[in-house]
Amino acid sequence: MPVDVVELNKIKKDFYEIAHFPNTVGAIDCTHIRMKAPTIDEHLYVNRKNYHSINIQGVHVCDSTLKILNIVARWPGSTHDAFIWSNSELKRLFVNGTISEGWLLGDSGYPLRPWLLTPVLNPNSQAEERYNTSHILTRNVIERAFGVLKARFRCLDSSGGTLLYSPDKVCKIFVATAVLHNMCIIDRIPLPEGCDPHDNGHIRAQQFAENLNGDGENVRLRLVNEFFRH
Hints:
Helix content: 25-40%
């Protein structure tokens, strides 16, 4: 994950060009990789759609290429997206100020924080509606990145079947394919003909009543009122 201010400013510019959402340095989401039932702690790998999986967190840093530049591949399918985020090194980079500029954008399964902005669950004004629209369009790049990755490497996609390996090896396979995905983008290798880049492993995180944080709520409210009012 980039931490240099100059590089972060370039990332913010790229994100802003999508839907005019300012100060954004990344879009965060999780995706599920289907796998065979493991022999140890089998029940922990059953996700909300009742199949065995690894729940993998990814962060897309927008450079107009859909590269994935931060991955957490270690948690079983029953693990909630917010828990993965809360126990990630990436969160610590924001908390301790190593990344002191910009926000991540996450869906409503994530907690609202000064460095992690989520949609307004019940918008009551046009400014909040505009904020939500811009947020969703901008954050959608991580879902597209997962979709392109799985279109290129069908073993990760539910339409390609089930990975018949241990949880540890499934995690290594995902990381390896993500590296190859980024290399394909750098070398401008097109997707195989007929591939439909969608994310078959995406499970929408369960929405909770907003986990409001005073500082996070103030940041979002100020952004809505100052930037999305018109």
